[in-house]
């Protein structure tokens, strides 16, 4: 198949969607498909095309949310370039910006459109409204999401049952929904593929001692990720065990706020703010950790949890449907509801190496089911279905026109 992936996020920009799309392109190409990417450029005036990698970057402008950019213009020369690709199917990964281009292009050239819903936009409206008109802004987001996904996409892909329920129960979605957890290149995180020397060097750089028990968080430092929960809980954990440390890897709009909170709580070097880490170095961080923790309920899936599990690092997650199916309580990790449960479970895992070792082993086994190869195979099956349905729709349209013409005569 000749496939077009349309996305607002793509490397070198790093986030879950960017990583997912880049991984999907690579996995689909390994299966023999020809894959093109349409994304946003950091340039505001000109578009760029990498012939070898088949990546088209459209002029983009900042929107004021992290480093996100929205496409600005669609020149005719760019449209002609895309037309020459002779795509069989379009797969969009965003509802806005490049997603609008995907919808317009699919309609103009009568192509099937598959869409993956990655982001719970209702959890991000505060960045635009700053607390004002919050209810009405969420209604607008709901309307736009329903319009894009139901009215224009032929097939919809969601990563978890949590998002499936959102579309079926709240949005009353009427078309096909395929639950396909996003895969990752799990092999990158396997212990046998990470140099122990690199892990030791990182520990030395971060001043992590042999006696320290390291809780790791990887992600964007923003309100919806609930990092504040982990920092406040760290204060109480230290009252029980002085050797517990919280390592926070990532950046975001609330980084300074969290650093100030850490100072206010007098946590000192017990909380380490590492900042952003290079893509190729991320696996090393999981291998300096004893435990991975998240209190975020804004995830559509939680790829960092899968990364931790692939590394053989026990995940400790707040109870949320985005983690159900990946983390099984008491089998490959732990689920908590309250701060007290979180603290109790951390302390138990600190003191029980055998329990943690068992969770680590089972976590690795579960992560192996989330490979990029398995993900690409299931997604390509959705493409084939979309193409067949589009062909049937086209034939039906022709027959309808013939019938109308005969009746008219």
Structural notes for this entry:
It is elongated, with a radius of gyration of 23 Å. The chain is α/β, with parallel strands linked by helices. Helix 11 links the parallel strand 14 and strand 15 (315-318). The relative contact order is 0.12. The strands form 3 sheets. Strands 3-4-2-1-7-8-9-10 form an 8-stranded mixed β-sheet, with helices on both faces. A 6-stranded parallel β-sheet has the order 13-12-11-14-15-16, sandwiched between helices. It has a two-stranded antiparallel sheet with strand order 5-6. Helix 8 crosses helix 12. It is built from 14 helices and 16 strands.
Q: Summarize model confidence as the mean pLDDT.
A: 87
Write down the Rg.
23 Å
Give the number of DSSP strands: 16
What portion of residues is helical? Answer: 40-55%
Secondary-structure element sequence? Answer: EHEEEEEHEHEHHEHEHEHEHEHEHEEHHH
How much β-strand is present in the residues? 15-25%
Poorly predicted regions are 123-130
Distance between the termini: 41 Å
What is the secondary structure topology, with strand pairs?
Blueprint: E1 2-6, H1 16-30, E2 34-40, E3 48-50, E4 55-58, E5 60-62, E6 69-71, H2 76-83, E7 89-92, H3 98-108, E8 113-116, H4 126-129, H5 134-152, E9 155-158, H6 161-170, E10 177-179, H7 196-205, E11 213-218, H8 227-240, E12 244-249, H9 255-264, E13 271-275, H10 282-286, E14 291-294, H11 303-310, E15 315-318, E16 334-336, H12 339-351, H13 353-367, H14 372-408
Parallel strand pairs: 1-2, 1-7, 2-4, 7-8, 8-9, 9-10, 11-12, 11-14, 12-13, 14-15, 15-16
Antiparallel strand pairs: 3-4, 5-6
Helix pairs in contact: 1-14, 8-12, 11-13
């Amino acid at each position: 198949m000749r496939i077009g992936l349309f996305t607002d996020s793509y490397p070198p920009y790093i986030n879950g969607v960017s990583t997912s799309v880049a991984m999907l392109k690579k996995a689909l190409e390994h299966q023999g498909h020809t894959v093109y990417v349409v994304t946003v450029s950091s340039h505001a005036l000109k578009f760029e095309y990498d012939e070898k990698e088949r990546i088209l970057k459209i002029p983009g402008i900042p929107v004021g949310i992290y480093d996100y950019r929205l496409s600005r213009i669609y020149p005719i020369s760019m449209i002609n370039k895309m037309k020459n690709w002779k795509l069989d199917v379009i797969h969009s990964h965003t509802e806005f910006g490049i997603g609008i281009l995907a919808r317009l292009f699919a309609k103009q050239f009568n192509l099937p459109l598959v869409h993956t819903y990655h982001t719970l936009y209702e959890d991000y409206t505060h960045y635009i409204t700053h607390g004002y008109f919050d209810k009405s802004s969420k209604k607008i987001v709901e309307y736009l999401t329903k319009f894009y996904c139901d009215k224009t996409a032929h097939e919809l892909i969601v990563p978890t049952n949590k998002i499936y329920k959102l579309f079926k129960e709240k949005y009353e979605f009427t078309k096909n929904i395929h639950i396909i957890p996003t895969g990752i290149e799990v092999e990158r995180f396997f212990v046998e593929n990470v140099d122990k020397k690199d892990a030791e060097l990182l520990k030395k750089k971060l001043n992590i001692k042999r006696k320290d028990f390291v809780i790791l968080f990887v992600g964007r430092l923003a309100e919806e990720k609930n990092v504040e929960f982990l920092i406040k809980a760290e204060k109480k954990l230290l009252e029980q065990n002085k050797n517990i440390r919280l390592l926070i890897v990532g950046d975001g709009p609330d980084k300074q706020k969290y650093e100030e909170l850490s100072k206010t709580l007098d946590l000192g070097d017990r909380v380490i703010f590492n900042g952003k880490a290079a893509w190729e170095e991320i696996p090393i961080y999981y291998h300096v950790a004893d435990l991975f923790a998240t209190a975020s309920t804004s995830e559509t899936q939680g790829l960092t949890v899968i990364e931790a599990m692939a590394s053989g690092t026990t995940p400790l997650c707040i109870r949320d449907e985005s983690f159900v199916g990946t983390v099984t309580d008491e089998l490959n990790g732990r689920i908590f509801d309250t701060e007290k449960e979180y603290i109790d479970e951390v302390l138990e895992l600190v003191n029980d190496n055998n329990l943690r070792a068992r969770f680590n082993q089972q976590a690795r086994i579960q992560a192996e089911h989330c490979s990029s190869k398995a993900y690409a195979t299931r997604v390509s099956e959705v493409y084939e279905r979309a193409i067949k349905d589009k062909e049937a729709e086209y034939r039906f349209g022709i027959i309808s026109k013939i019938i109308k013409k005969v009746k008219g005569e």
